[in-house]
């Protein structure tokens, strides 16, 4: 018969085993061949940890609260709708521009990119659900108490949207439909 110490030890061991099994089932293999559009691309989630790169200087992660996530999605979707409606000079109405929703897996991959402390697009951030995931980059050196995180987010989204001047309808028309098997 197990004593209380043995039972406690058994429960802890079972909890650790179940936790490892659950985590293994939840974390996709980002190193799997075929996940990136080109097999020569390195996936941001392949063989990485959640730790900041040693080259990062005084890094700080801003927690993405539900309120911030909603703000970011609302701003993106309003601007995308403005573009899709054909109300933006030089752009025709869009035929298939769905609303964007927050995705925790893409947010996790974005966090991995940020923690490298390199202001560059990663080669691949594809997921099974979002094979052609895009990416927006921005950074800001913040001085204490001058700006709220929400104001910074708003400035980032406005800056990203201003990039529409670098594109054209000809550029958009040059895109091909992704193969049906990955949609």
Which key terms come to mind for this protein?
single chain, 183 residues, mainly alpha, Pathogenesis-related Protein p14a, 2 domains, globular
Report on the architecture of this protein.
The chain has helices spanning 4-26, 66-84, 104-114, 149-161, 169-173. With 183 residues, the protein is an all-alpha fold. It folds into two domains: 1-30; 31-182, 3-Layer(aba) Sandwich (Pathogenesis-related Protein p14a), CATH 3.40.33.10. The longest helix is centred in the N-terminal third of the chain and has 23 residues, at 4-26. The protein starts with a helix and ends in a 10-residue tail after the last helix.
* Structural class estimated from helices and strands: mainly alpha
CATH class group of the largest domain? Alpha Beta
Rg, rounded, reads: 21 Å
Question: Oligomer, anyone?
Answer: single chain
By CATH, the architecture of the largest domain is named 3-Layer(aba) Sandwich
List the topology elements.
Layout: H1 4-26, H2 66-84, H3 104-114, H4 149-161, H5 169-173
């Amino acid at each position: 018969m197990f004593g209380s110490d043995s039972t406690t030890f058994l429960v802890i061991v079972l909890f650790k085993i179940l936790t490892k099994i659950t985590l293994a089932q939840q974390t996709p293999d980002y190193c799997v061949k075929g996940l990136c559009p080109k097999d020569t691309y390195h996936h941001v989630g392949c063989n990485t940890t959640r730790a900041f790169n040693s080259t990062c200087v005084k890094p700080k992660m801003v927690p993405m609260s539900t309120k911030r996530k909603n703000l970011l999605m609302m701003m993106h979707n309003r601007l995308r709708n403005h573009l899709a409606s054909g109300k933006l000079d030089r752009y025709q109405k869009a035929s298939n521009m769905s609303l964007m929703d927050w995705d925790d897996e893409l947010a996790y991959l974005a966090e991995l990119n940020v923690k490298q402390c390199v202001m560059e697009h990663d080669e691949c951030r594809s997921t099974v659900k979002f094979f052609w995931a895009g990416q927006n980059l921005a950074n800001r050196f913040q001085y204490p108490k001058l700006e709220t995180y929400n104001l910074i987010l708003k400035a980032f989204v406005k800056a990203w949207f201003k990039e529409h001047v670098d594109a054209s309808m000809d550029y958009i028309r040059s895109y091909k439909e992704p193969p049906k098997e990955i949609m």
